[in-house]
Design a protein that fits this description.
The structure holds two protein chains of two kinds.
Chain A (H helix, E strand, L loop, with lengths): L1 H9 E12 L29 E12 L3 E5 L6 H8 L7 E6 L2 E2 L4 H7 E4 L11 H11 L4 H14 L15 H13 L5 E5 L7 H16 L3 E6 L2 H7 L2 E6 L2 E6 L1 H7 L4 E7 L7 H5 L4 E7 L2 E6 L6 H10 L4 E7 L3 H9 L5
Helix pairs in contact in A: 4-5
Chain B lengths: L5 H4 L15 H18 L1 H26 L6 H29 L7 H4 L6 H30 L10 H25 L5 H14 L14 H6 L4 H13 L8 H27 L2
Classes of the chains: A alpha/beta, B mainly alpha.
Chain lengths: ~350, ~280
């Protein structure tokens, strides 16, 4: 009772065993022409055509007022997570609550308390820039006068004040993204969700957004952001969750995560074929801490920095592989990310 | 067992900025309708051309040219005008809902900003149907004087039952805007043009708009087959109210059929809409 009571009252976001499956893709949808039905797939050994699992038993706890980052490669389940938390996607199983309301049973209350910046700008193209803000505010019951004042203020702050009366189509991609940010803030939500908000922004606009996000955070609002940019996550977020294949791999402050990064320098060798056959010899190279292979990429963690590169190349060549490219990285969130997901961000 | 008050455990929260104020469904519905009105007003010239061009051309050919040439008797105008009103309200109500739906659920999903409103998602669909019906009624009401103007005096035309006329017009417009919801959500965007050829065009031709239903007495099979067509009830209902001298269905039968059809379209359209709106 006790332990269940506390998080419910203090958590801005809480998910338990959240799972989302999408039905296996079918070729026939609607009356799409030219889409010939796919032949029945031959059941290859070990490949059953089951549903696609986008999210697999995700548990998250975000306390009120936290700036929380979701990091993961494409297809990791970040957007699905945001979709469920913003009531726009229905979970297959599990529970999630946002700002004290259940996303499945009390979705209206959740929407009342959140603001959402989508990955791809989706302004109302039939309206002007300021009308987008005024009407969005009206959908939240905010009077026109207040909405207009806040709208112009936000547009000014985001550097598109001179576009207030423009048609949405006259805005560049980056300007549309700024409009989306203004729209998400116009009703002053308690929890703000941003899905890759700075993609497509120029450096100046990105810094302006960072400043706004820091202000909102300082006011005690909870912010959940997915991002591709480690630097951004590192600079802004109180805590980061690293997700891949719909699972939570790590969740901690940026400093604690950095401390978990595998020691040594990460050396990546791009080979001309499967790297798996090289792992054995590479592990015997003095100075390598850990070696792993993924397709044609061989990853070695070295405590002697680049010194291990020549013996690694020889090890590869001894196994009949040629090295096409070499990459070095020092321990960082980035190397932790690579070691956890086996993939780079982007 | 004692439970610590929640406030003691909570960190200082942001000052209450009113986000928890209940938003009334009526206020949001009003805002959604204002949005559609703003867009419709801005697009009024296109809207009028799109929905009035066909009816006006029909009026000119069948209500003016052919009678002048003596191919049809003057009395034909009395049967034609109610049908033309029905056609224009059907076209505009269907298009007012179906076409924006395609854009709303298209590549950018423009409807997202409305789906994030703190109201039940079905309200967004309800509003679309209401806004579409209003546009349908407006078109119908424009065509009535326009037809009278082009065709000249129409035997037996009366506005004595104006309230019944407006009511049947509104009911018909609701039916067609609900049908627009079904078409706009269920049909793939690239097929929307096909929708007009396969569904809307036959509906207009076999909708007893250009001839009264009783005129089909001599072709019984067709007479009963066309009863699946909502346009039949709108055209006949309008005949009953503004040209009651022309043989027509009893108005209550027409109204009853429209209530049933509107309900069926609304039920189906709402289902598809919700399935598309929430992933």
């Amino acid at each position: 009772m006790w332990s269940a009571y506390i998080p419910r009252m203090t958590a801005a976001i809480e998910t338990r065993a959240l799972r989302k499956e999408y039905p296996a893709p079918t070729s026939r949808r609607g009356w799409a022409p030219g889409a010939a039905p796919t032949p029945p797939t031959q059941a290859r050994p070990g490949t059953l055509r089951g549903p696609i699992v986008a999210l697999d038993s995700l548990d998250l706890d975000v306390p009120q007022g936290e700036f929380f980052g979701l990091l993961g490669p494409n297809g990791a389940g970040k957007t699905t997570t945001i979709g469920i938390l913003t009531t726009r996607v229905r979970a297959t199983s599990g529970k999630a609550s946002v700002a004290g309301a259940d996303v499945a049973t009390d979705d209206v209350r959740v929407r009342q308390r959140i603001g959402v910046v989508p990955q791809r700008p989706n302004p109302d193209r039939s309206l002007t820039v300021i009308e987008n803000l005024e009407f969005h505010a009206a959908y939240f019951g905010i009077a026109l006068g207040t909405a207009a004042r806040r709208g112009y203020e936000l547009l000014d702050r985001l550097g598109i004040g001179d576009k207030a009366n423009a048609k949405v189509d006259e805005l560049s991609g980056g300007q549309q993204q700024r409009l989306m940010i203004a729209r998400a803030l116009i009703h002053e939500p308690r929890v703000l969700f941003l899905d890759e908000p700075t993609v497509g922004l120029d450096p100046q606009a990105r810094l302006a957004l960072w400043e706004i996000l820091r202000d909102l955070h300082a006011q005690g609002r909870t912010i959940v952001m997915t991002t591709h940019y480690m630097e951004e996550a590192d600079q802004l977020c109180d805590r980061l969750a690293i997700v891949d294949h719909g699972r939570l791999l790590a969740c901690d402050t940026p400093n604690n995560l950095r401390a978990q990064a595998p020691g040594g320098t990460l050396i990546e060798l791009m080979l001309d074929g499967d790297a798996g056959t090289v792992v054995g010899s590479a592990e015997r190279v003095p100075g390598t801490l850990r070696v792993e292979a993924r397709n044609a990429v061989l990853r070695a963690y070295s405590d002697r920095r680049g010194e291990v590169i020549p013996p690694l190349i020889r090890a590869a060549e001894a196994n009949g592989r040629t090295v096409l490219n070499i990459n070095l990285a020092t321990p960082s969130l980035e190397t932790l990310f690579v070691s956890l997901t086996g993939r780079k961000l982007d | 067992m004692t439970v610590t008050p929640a406030t003691a455990l909570m960190p200082a929260r942001a000052p209450d900025d009113g986000v928890d104020r209940e938003v009334s469904t009526g206020a949001v519905l009003g805002a959604l309708l204002r949005r559609d009105l703003r867009v419709a007003r801005r697009e009024a010239p296109y809207f009028l051309v799109r929905t009035l061009m066909q009816p006006v051309l029909f009026i000119i050919v069948f209500g003016f040219l052919l009678p002048k040439m003596g191919f049809v008797r003057g009395g034909y105008a009395s049967a034609l005008l109610p049908g033309i009103i029905a056609v224009s309200l059907a076209l505009s109500a269907i298009q007012a809902v179906a076409l924006p739906m395609v854009q709303d659920f298209g590549w950018t999903r423009e409807i997202e900003d409305r789906l994030l409103a703190p109201v039940p998602t079905a309200l967004i669909a309800t509003e679309k149907v209401l806004a579409g019906a209003m546009q349908g009624v407006i078109s119908g009401l424009i065509v009535l004087p326009l037809g009278r103007l082009i065709m000249g005096p129409i035997p037996g035309l009366t506005l004595e039952h104006a309230i019944a006329f407006v009511s049947i017009t509104a009911l018909g417009a609701l039916t067609f805007s609900a049908m627009g919801l079904v078409l706009g959500t269920a049909i793939a965007p690239q097929q929307i043009g096909l929708m007009f050829s396969i569904i809307v065009a036959p509906m207009l031709m076999f909708g007893c708009a250009y001839y009264p239903w009783r005129g089909l007495d001599s072709i019984p099979m067709m007479k009963y087959a066309v009863l699946v067509n909502p346009l039949v009830y709108v055209a006949e209902g309008i005949r009953a109210t503004i040209t009651p001298g022309i043989p027509h269905m009893p108005i209550l039968v027409a109204a009853g059929a429209l209530v049933v059809l509107a309900g069926a379209f609304w039920y189906a359209g709402r289902r598809v809409f919700l399935r598309k709106a929430v992933g």
